[in-house]
Amino acid sequence: MNTIGVLALQGAVREHIRSIEETGAAAVEIKRKEQLTQIDGLILPGGESTTMRRLIDSYGFFDAIQKFGKQGKPVFGTCAGLILMANAIENQEQTHLGLMDMKVARNAFGRQVASFEANLDVNDVGVAFNAVFIRAPYILEMGSDVEVLAAYKNRAVAARQGHYLCTAFHPELTDDNRLIEYFAQMVEQSKQTLAF
Ligand SMILES: NC(=O)CC[C@H](N)C(=O)O
């Protein structure tokens, strides 16, 4: 059985744990970096990216997560997790894990529409997702290795780069598990590849 961890320093952890379990994979809350060796894929949840970054540093996760990704193990960032994965952030000098070749804008849909839901199709995954956006970022620019999977009002809001996946919205807040199932398949494929 595959085991998927959720970085459990801050943010929407419990909802991800539930959705992972519903795919049939084992779910673990990751609170110490040593636990990363026990999982096959990692989710970086939504929350507040600057707070999460502070906690990543204080618990010594920074190098450990980068190493996890460089080993070819899948990582899925939702909302603040997407910001953590980007290698550039608009109007901000500090970047975080830099796993994906993309520049993101934070709180990008503006104050009036801080939270909203939209009906989205996600390439490779399915149609008619009820996507929940909460003070969401979007992807402004990306390298040629990054494939946009979904857009809202012409803004890229879901993308994949090899074994890295990100969404600006929160799939864990609905009971539509197609995105987490897609990630679980990425985890299964990488496990088979890495075994050889
Ligand atoms: N729902 C979310 O994860 C919001 C992300 C938050 N606006 C940030 O910049 O980190």
Automatic annotation (TrEMBL):
Sorted alphabetically, which keywords does the UniProt record give? Glutamine amidotransferase, Hydrolase, Lyase, Pyridoxal phosphate
What is said about its interaction partners and assembly?
A: In the presence of PdxS, forms a dodecamer of heterodimers. Only shows activity in the heterodimer.
Question: Which amino acid positions bind L-glutamine, per UniProt?
Answer: 47-49, 106, 134-135
Gene3D superfamilies this protein is in? 3.40.50.880
Function according to Swiss-Prot or TrEMBL: Catalyzes the hydrolysis of glutamine to glutamate and ammonia as part of the biosynthesis of pyridoxal 5'-phosphate. The resulting ammonia molecule is channeled to the active site of PdxS.
Q: What is its EC number?
A: 4.3.3.6, 3.5.1.2
Q: Which Gene Ontology molecular-function terms are recorded?
A: glutaminase activity; pyridoxal 5'-phosphate synthase (glutamine hydrolysing) activity
UniProt-recorded name of the protein = Pyridoxal 5'-phosphate synthase subunit PdxT
Active-site residues, Swiss-Prot/TrEMBL: 79, 170, 172
On whether Signal is a keyword of this UniProt record, the answer is no
Keyword Glycoprotein included in the entry's annotation: no
Matching HAMAP family, A to Z? PdxT
Q: Which PROSITE patterns match?
A: GATASE_COBBQ, GATASE_TYPE_1, PDXT_SNO_1, PDXT_SNO_2
Task: Say which species the protein is native to.
Answer: Lentibacillus kapialis
InterPro entries, from UniProt? Class_I_gatase-like, PdxT/SNO, PdxT/SNO_CS
Gene Ontology CC annotations of this record: cytosol; glutaminase complex
**GO BP annotations listed:** L-glutamine catabolic process; pyridoxal phosphate biosynthetic process; pyridoxine metabolic process
Query: What pathway annotation does it carry?
Result: Cofactor biosynthesis; pyridoxal 5'-phosphate biosynthesis
Q: Which family does it belong to?
A: Belongs to the glutaminase PdxT/SNO family.
Recorded catalytic reaction(s): these are: L-glutamine + H2O = L-glutamate + NH4(+); aldehydo-D-ribose 5-phosphate + D-glyceraldehyde 3-phosphate + L-glutamine = pyridoxal 5'-phosphate + L-glutamate + phosphate + 3 H2O + H(+)
